[in-house]
TrEMBL record:
Protein name in the entry: NAD-dependent dehydratase
Organism, scientific name: Streptomyces tirandamycinicus
Stretches assigned to the NAD(P)-binding domain: 9-312
InterPro entries documented for this protein: Arna-like_SDR_e (IPR045869), NAD(P)-bd_dom (IPR016040), NAD(P)-bd_dom_sf (IPR036291)
Organism placement in taxonomy: Bacteria, Bacillati, Actinomycetota, Actinomycetes, Kitasatosporales
Pfam families: GDP_Man_Dehyd
GO function term, MF aspect, one: carboxy-lyase activity
Amino acid sequence: MTSAPLAAVTGAEGFIGSHLTEALVASGHRVRAMAQYNSFSSYGWLETLPQDVLDQVEIVLGDVRDPGSVRALAEGADAVYHLAALIAIPYSYRAPHSYVDTNVTGTLNVLEAVRALGTPRLVHTSTSETYGTAQTVPITEDHPVNTQSPYAASKAGGDRLADSYHTSFGTPVVTLRPFNTFGPRQSMRAVIPTVIGQVAAGQHTITLGDLRPTRDFTYVTDTAAAFLAVGTAPAEAVVGRTLNAGTGGEISIGDLVGLIGKVMDTDLDIREDGQRIRPADSEVMRLVADSTRLHEATGWAPVLDLEQGLARTVEFFRDPANLARYKTGIYNI
């Protein structure tokens, strides 16, 4: 009898990582999930997964900044999904060294472990922020890289390392570049949970930053499916490539707020908060994906549209137990 394939996931305790863990288990994988070491022994969002899912998950505490932690995680894995990262753009203005340590050095540690162990597949996570404001639309993988924040620069550094390990050592890495993912469990540092969370907490005056930028929003289960697609596709279809994952649609933040109000059946009063606005040259004004190459390589396509995904996200935040995990009354940097 053949045992189920083993997938190792960094950043498994987080928003996308916890959904990917569920998707991997649903597809028949065993999962070794790394949550960042902390003195509370907290497993983050993994603690909320159903028991039948957790029965197939080995949770380990570690840190991608530590090579030993990463090597132990990857030992014996059929594939490594590298999602661990510092993600908040505003905090990257304050603590850029931390972003390099986690997003660049952490990625180097993952690459070294996969190279040393001969792991058959590494899925590395990029971000649409590496493109900067769209120069041509929709954005294909050939679009120039233009990093407009320390966060974006650190992610681009990890991407370049992944590319170099493939060309230098034949490391079987594929880079997935999701555009803006949203859904249950997302940090309040992102715009959709910021708005929904404030409304669910009984607020009708919503404080936000710039309402003009446009984004391409993908529901989290569709993003998780994209990770699974590139992690299991034939090597010749994906290895050595960077592939966008997005819907191909875009909406301004202002219009997005209006749509959330519609879904929540609430009239919203929007107030601009100066501390939430990025430096002028750092704001990415437009992002919209061309995911043709991902679709052609794997068959992936998003299932849920924006309004359907928002309805599911609202349902999550309206559950008092879920809402209690968030601090809706402050600016979460």
